[in-house]
Automatic annotation (TrEMBL):
InterPro entries listed in its UniProt record: AAA+_ATPase, ABC_transporter-like_ATP-bd, ABC_transporter-like_CS, BCAA_Transport_ATP-bd_LivF, P-loop_NTPase
Protein name in the entry: High-affinity branched-chain amino acid ABC transporter ATP-binding protein LivF
Swiss-Prot/TrEMBL keywords: Amino-acid transport, ATP-binding, Nucleotide-binding, Transport
Lineage: Bacteria, Bacillati, Actinomycetota, Actinomycetes, Micrococcales
UniProt record similarity statement: Belongs to the ABC transporter superfamily.
UniProt organism field: Leifsonella bigeumensis
GO molecular function, one term: ATP binding
Keyword Transport: yes
Gene name of the record: livF
Top-level taxonomic group: Bacteria
Domain ABC transporter: 2-231
Length: 232
């Protein structure tokens, strides 16, 4: 599905990402972990077409999408949930979900929204509540639900645990893990290594914009001291 080949991202004189390779297959959760400013968000933003790469290639389903706009990447089946979520505060929960299904027929969108309410029963209870009044956990659930309404090929999650209480983080990560039952590939950037290890099939450790370790969680946990040293 996704092949990131030696990408680089530069902001002026700052090299945010350099020579990073990532693979995400259908139905797989892959985590990118690292300390603050390790290059996690820049990597996801490059894949989503939000920032331009200064080197390397991004290949989606065998198609080189390097340099494509964010809009075109989204049309190709990639959805991103930014850090802190990405909902419209002035719209209700139901209206936010309808925005997520705006490229679907009315009947298909309604069926997908009702399916989301089954997956996220708390959102069903709050369907007529404005997004701006939701709790942090509810906002994150709504962001994920809205991003998955149209059954994307690839979901990008940037720091899904950011600012959430531990109990809510557990709920959010259980929902993310549930996505593996479909064919959606998930790439999650996360500073909380323990949470990432618990759900990921494979983990990449970034330090100063470079991938310094890679492997399944079971292998990286054998070198936990080394992983911790890269996480600061």
């Amino acid at each position: 599905m996704l092949r990131v080949e030696s990408i680089a991202v530069r902001f002026g004189a700052v090299q945010a990402v350099q020579d990073v390779d990532i693979v995400v297959d259908p139905g797989e959760i892959v985590a990118v972990i690292g300390a603050n400013a390790a290059g996690k968000s820049s990597t996801l933003n490059a894949i989503a077409g939000i920032v331009k790469t200064s080197g390397g290639r991004i290949v989606l389903d065998g198609v080189d999408v390097t340099g494509w706009s964010n809009y075109r990447i989204a049309r190709a089946g990639v959805r991103q949930v930014p850090e802190g979520g990405g909902i419209l505060n002035s719209l209700t929960v139901d209206e936010n979900l309808r925005v997520g299904g705006n490229r679907m027929t009315r009947d298909d969108a309604r069926a997908a929204i009702e399916a989301s309410y089954e997956t996220f029963p708390r959102l069903a209870e709050r369907r007529n509540v404005l997004g701006g009044t939701l709790s942090g956990g509810e906002r994150q659930m709504l962001s994920i639900a809205r991003a998955t309404i149209s059954a994307p090929k690839l979901l990008l999650l940037d720091e899904p645990s950011f600012g959430l209480a531990p109990a809510i983080v557990s709920q959010v990560f259980e929902l993310v893990e549930g996505l593996k039952r479909g064919d959606i590939g998930v790439l999650v950037a996360e500073q909380n290594a323990a949470r990432a290890f618990a759900i990921a099939d494979r983990v990449y450790v970034l330090q100063q914009g470079r991938a310094v370790l890679e492997g399944p969680p079971s292998e990286l946990e054998k070198n936990s001291a080394l992983v911790e040293s890269y996480l600061g």
